[in-house]
Amino acid sequence: MARLELFRGVVHPWHHDHFGHMNVRHYAPFFDDATYHIWTCMGLSYAEMMAEHGVHCVTAQATTGFVKELVAGDLILIDGAVSRLGTRSCGFHLRMLHAETGVLHATYDLVEVFFDPVTRASAPMPEAVRDRLEQFLQDAD
């Protein structure tokens, strides 16, 4: 299955640091917004996971790889896919690409843990959720 387009944005001058390119602290909000969209793009909303399965996900680890700098006016596109399925967690691999050229600028590898809000502990991944996530499983590239 193709990677999911999750987010589009633009780099503004206020994203710049003293070196004249987007500062590393501004990558996180772009990737975080894209991560919120990945669930609904796969047909699994947060509300559905809570209502039907009694769980939601929390981020356990997020790793950003910086590949090529971005400057004001650059248009970005973030896509993503499921990169790993565990028993209580899953991994996502997101890419930040230049929307016009397709050049890779950054990667974001995320581990999400299924969480029971009543017990405040990790929970097994519901089978129906696993079945859906398997449809979007790809090797990270």
Features:
3 helices, Thiol Ester Dehydrase, Chain A, 6-stranded antiparallel sheet, HotDog_dom_sf, single chain, Thioesterase family protein, elongated, 6 strands, 141 residues
Rounded mean pLDDT score: 94
Give the second-level CATH assignment, the architecture: Roll
Structural class computed from helices and strand pairing: alpha+beta
Q: How would a textbook summarize the main sheet?
A: 6 strands, antiparallel
How much helix, percentage-wise, in residues? Answer: 10-25%
Count of DSSP strands: 6
Number of domains: 1
Ranges where pLDDT stays below 50 over 5 or more residues in a row are none
The CATH homology group name:
Hotdog Thioesterase
Distance between the termini: 14 Å
Could you walk me through the main structural features you see in this protein, from its secondary elements to its overall organization?
This protein has 141 residues and is an alpha+beta fold. It has a single domain (4-134), classed as Roll (Thiol Ester Dehydrase, Chain A), CATH 3.10.129. The protein is built from 3 helices and 6 strands, in the order βααβββββα. Strands 1, 2, 3, 4, 5 and 6 form a 6-stranded antiparallel sheet that branches. The protein is elongated. This is Thioesterase family protein.
Quick description:
The chain is α+β, with helices and mostly antiparallel strands.
Helices and strands, with pairings:
Elements: E1 4-10, H1 27-41, H2 46-53, E2 56-66, E3 75-85, E4 89-98, E5 104-116, E6 121-122, H3 127-134
Antiparallel strand pairs: 1-3, 2-5, 3-4, 4-5, 5-6
